UniProtKB/TrEMBL annotation:
<dbReference type="GO" id="GO:0055085">
    <property type="term" value="P:transmembrane transport"/>
</dbReference>
<feature type="transmembrane region" description="Helical">
    <location>
        <begin position="204"/>
        <end position="221"/>
    </location>
</feature>
<keyword id="KW-0472">Membrane</keyword>
<feature type="transmembrane region" description="Helical">
    <location>
        <begin position="96"/>
        <end position="114"/>
    </location>
</feature>
<dbReference type="GO" id="GO:0010043">
    <property type="term" value="P:response to zinc ion"/>
</dbReference>
<keyword id="KW-1133">Transmembrane helix</keyword>
<dbReference type="InterPro" id="IPR037294">
    <property type="entry name" value="ABC_BtuC-like"/>
</dbReference>
<feature type="transmembrane region" description="Helical">
    <location>
        <begin position="38"/>
        <end position="58"/>
    </location>
</feature>
<comment type="similarity">
    <text>Belongs to the ABC-3 integral membrane protein family.</text>
</comment>
<feature type="transmembrane region" description="Helical">
    <location>
        <begin position="142"/>
        <end position="160"/>
    </location>
</feature>
<feature type="transmembrane region" description="Helical">
    <location>
        <begin position="181"/>
        <end position="198"/>
    </location>
</feature>
<protein>
    <submittedName>
        <fullName>Metal ABC transporter permease</fullName>
    </submittedName>
</protein>
<keyword id="KW-0812">Transmembrane</keyword>
<dbReference type="Pfam" id="PF00950">
    <property type="entry name" value="ABC-3"/>
</dbReference>
<feature type="transmembrane region" description="Helical">
    <location>
        <begin position="253"/>
        <end position="274"/>
    </location>
</feature>
<feature type="transmembrane region" description="Helical">
    <location>
        <begin position="6"/>
        <end position="26"/>
    </location>
</feature>
<dbReference type="GO" id="GO:0043190">
    <property type="term" value="C:ATP-binding cassette (ABC) transporter complex"/>
</dbReference>
Length: 292
C-alpha cells in the first residue's frame, strides 16, 4: 500500500483526478439544481469529434490542443441545442438526443477515417478519450487541469452570491439587475471547460458522472446550498482518490471507470441511508403511522 501511495505515477494521476473531481462536483451542483445536467451529458459526448478534428488539423496529440478542439465543439454543440429548441418544435430532450448521437457518431466516423489513413500518423491513444486513460496522464496534463479547475472555481467564488440568487430565484435576480443569460452562459462555459480538460482522465462518455453524481449525493444529505457544495466536493475528491488507488493496485482496471464505480457506490449508499434516503423516509413514515 505504501509503495503505491508514494509512487510517482500514482501521485500524478491522483492529483489530476482529485482536482478535477472536486471542481466538477462543485460546478456540477449548479447544473443539477437547475435541471441542466443532461446538457452536460450531450456536450460531453459532442466534444469527442473536436478532439479528432484538432488532431487532424494540428497533427499532434498535445493535451492542450486536443482540449481546445473539444472546447470548441462543446460550445458548438450547446448553441446547436439552443437553436433547435428555439426555432423548431423539437423539445429539449429530443434536441439533446439528436446532438449527442450526431456529434458522437461524427467523432467515431472521423476516428475510423484517421486510423485507416496513412496520411495521419500517431493516432494511437485518441480512442482513449472515449473512456479515458488517466494512467497516461503527464505532469503537463495535471497543470492544465489545475489551471482550468482553479479558474473555474475562482469565477464561481467571485459570482457566488449572484449565482445563488439566480439558481433559486431567477425572477428576483432579474429584478435586481443580475443577467440570467450571463449567469447561464458562465456556468455552461465553466462546465464545458472542465469537460474538455477532463476527457483524458475519464473520457467523453463518463465525464458527465463527475458533474452529476457528487451533486446528487450532496442533495441527498443536505438542503443547504453551501453544505451541498462541500459534500459534493468531498465526494468527488474521495472517489477520485479511491478510484485511482484501485486502478493502480489492480492491473486490469482503468482509472476512469474505477472512479465512476466508487461514485456510484456513494450514490447508492446515500439513496438508502442519507437524510432524504429511502430507508430514513420509510422509518419516518412508519413512526408517523404509529403515532396516528
Amino acid at each position: 500500500m505504501i509503495d503505491i501511495l508514494t509512487s510517482y505515477t500514482f501521485m500524478i494521476v491522483a492529483l489530476g483526478t482529485v482536482i478535477l473531481a472536486v471542481a466538477s462536483g462543485i460546478i456540477g451542483t449548479v447544473s443539477v439544481i437547475k435541471g441542466q445536467s443532461l446538457i452536460g451529458d450531450a456536450v460531453g459526448h459532442a466534444t469527442f469529434p473536436g478532439i479528432v478534428l484538432a488532431f487532424m488539423l494540428a497533427g499532434t496529440r498535445e493535451t492542450l490542443v486536443l482540449a481546445l478542439g473539444a472546447l470548441l465543439l462543446g460550445i458548438i454543440a450547446f448553441f446547436t441545442i439552443q437553436i433547435i429548441t428555439e426555432h423548431s418544435r423539437i423539445t429539449l430532450d429530443g434536441a439533446l438526443a439528436l446532438v449527442l448521437s450526431s456529434f458522437f457518431g461524427l467523432g467515431m466516423a472521423l476516428m475510423s477515417f484517421v486510423q485507416g489513413n496513412p496520411d495521419f500518423e500517431g493516432t494511437q491513444g485518441l480512442s482513449d478519450y472515449i473512456f479515458g486513460q488517466a494512467a497516461y496522464m503527464l505532469r503537463s496534463d495535471v497543470y492544465l487541469i489545475l489551471a482550468a479547475s482553479g479558474a473555474s472555481l475562482l469565477v464561481f467564488i467571485l459570482f457566488y452570491q449572484q449565482l445563488k440568487i439566480y439558481i433559486f430565484d431567477p425572477v428576483y435576480s432579474r429584478s435586481i439587475g443580475i443577467s440570467n443569460m450571463l449567469m447561464n452562459f458562465m456556468i455552461l462555459g465553466i462546465t464545458i471547460t472542465l469537460i474538455a480538460v477532463g476527457l483524458k482522465a475519464v473520457g467523453a462518455i463518463l465525464i458527465v458522472n463527475l458533474l452529476i453524481a457528487p451533486a446528487v449525493v450532496g442533495q441527498l444529505w443536505s438542503d443547504r446550498f453551501f453544505h451541498v457544495l462541500i459534500i459534493a466536493a468531498a465526494t468527488g475528491g474521495i472517489s477520485a482518490f479511491a478510484g485511482t488507488y484501485i486502478s493502480t493496485a489492480g492491473n486490469d482496471i482503468a482509472t476512469g471507470p474505477a472512479i465512476i464505480l466508487v461514485l456510484s457506490a456513494f450514490v447508492l449508499v446515500s439513496l438508502l441511508s442519507a437524510r432524504k434516503g429511502l430507508l430514513r423516509r420509510s422509518i419516518l413514515k412508519r413512526k408517523v403511522g404509529e403515532r396516528s
